[in-house]
Every structure is written in C-alpha cells, then in structure tokens.
Amino acid sequence: MTARRLRDQVKGMQSHLDLRPVLLLAVLYGIVAFLPFEIFGWLQNEDGLMEWGSVALLILSAINAFRLQKQSQQRWERLGWLLFLTLCCLFIGEEISWGERLHGAGIDAIRSINTQGETNLHNIAAFQGKGLLHLGWASLGLVLGLGGFVLRASPLIPAKRYTLYFTVPALWYLGFEFCRKPGECLISVANHQEIYEFLIIAGLYLHTRSWCRKRGIATRIFRIFGTG
C-alpha cells in the first residue's frame, strides 16, 4: 500500500470517525512519557493540567447545554439538555471536591471515609474497594460510545463519530480494574485515570459543540460572553 493511498484512507475514515483520541494517546505515550522533568506526570497526575482541563471542558459543556435547552422547542429535548446540564454540574462539583480545592473548607465526616481525604463522593473507600468507580466509568463510556450505533443521536447520546472518546476509556477502565496489580494479567495497567477522564469529558464537550453549531449557536468563548 502506497503512502498516498494510506493517507487517503485515513482521511476517508476521519470524515466518519474522530481519530484525535488515538493521536492524543500516541503523543502522550510515545513522546511525552519520555520527556524529562516529569512532564508526563505534571500533565496527568492528580491536580495536573489534564484534570483542570477536564473541569474547564465541563464548564463549557454546561454552558452549551444551558443555551441549547433554552433554544429547544421540543419538550423531550429540553429535558435531555437539562439532565445533561445537571450531570455536568455534578461532575464539576466532584472534580473540585465541591470547592475544597479552591478554598480549603470541607466536611470532616466525608473526609474520614475518603481515600484522598477530600470532600467528594467518588473517592469514598467503599466505592473504590468494590470497583464501583472504575466500572461506573467503563459503563458510562460504553453507553455513550456505542449508543449512537443503535439509537438516534440525542442530547444524551453522542454521534457515532465521537465513539473513540468513550469506548477507548471504557476499555482502559476495565483493564485498570482487573489488571492493575502485577501478576493478575499478562500486562499491568498503570494508573492514568486523568487521561481517560479527560477523553470522555472532551467527547461530551464536542457533542454539545456539534449541537450548538447545528442550531447556529456561537461556541467561541468571546462570542458567548458578547465580546469581540
């Protein structure tokens, strides 16, 4: 196969399938992981750039969902975007430990049973010990990534072209849950959760942005806030 033919096939695939998740992972694991000064850790560790990037994308997704529900004419669609907006707000609250990471104040009763000593629900020891968190992320990824193949795209079902943003993280979470300890599987899966959370959240943002563009709603930040 010639390089030109391969390039044409990749371009044809890109028109139906967003391949940027694969490109991001290739860059992270093939280049960034080998850079000095622990740049890879700075990007994907707890409180790293990717985690705060996820929060930023969740905020933008929530803004898009709010504006879409205002414009929606159909009741079911409006309810769908309101539910999406609510979920985004819950995810944002959990990611920043309901403000504790910003102002330092938290709830001691939750901190005492939290694996990271923070005020959030997803790191409660019971969830972590039974694998509910990782299996929950895997289930969410599979539903969001495969739902578009059997159901019509809707506020809660992203289009098929975004499937890799969800199915790749789903497979990683399954691998991490069952193969994180040496000797459990042929390979051990390292703890890079922030990378795969970022992919899922990026897919959700692109989903809302796609709907905004279909409805003629501006998605650039300076247009949203009426500047520029």
Distance between the termini: 48 Å
**Quaternary structure type:** single chain
How many domains? The number is 1
> What string, H for helix and E for strand, traces the elements in order?
HHHHHHHHHHHH
Largest sheet: none
Overall number of strands: 0
Give the averaged pLDDT, no decimals.
86
Give the helix proportion (percent range).
55-70%
Low-confidence stretches: 224-228
Radius of gyration: 19 Å
Given the structure, what is the number of helices?
A: 12
Shape, principal axes of CA atoms: globular
Question: Which structural class do the helices and strands define?
Answer: mainly alpha
Strand residue percentage: under 5%
Topology of this protein?
Layout lengths: L2 H12 L5 H11 L8 H6 L4 H23 L3 H21 L4 H4 L4 H4 L13 H5 L2 H19 L13 H16 L13 H22 L6 H4 L4
Helix pairs in contact: 4-5, 4-11, 9-10, 10-11
Description:
The protein is built from twelve helices and no strands. The chain has 228 residues and is mostly helical. Helix 10 packs antiparallel against helix 11. It is globular and about 45 Å long. The protein starts with a helix and ends with a helix.
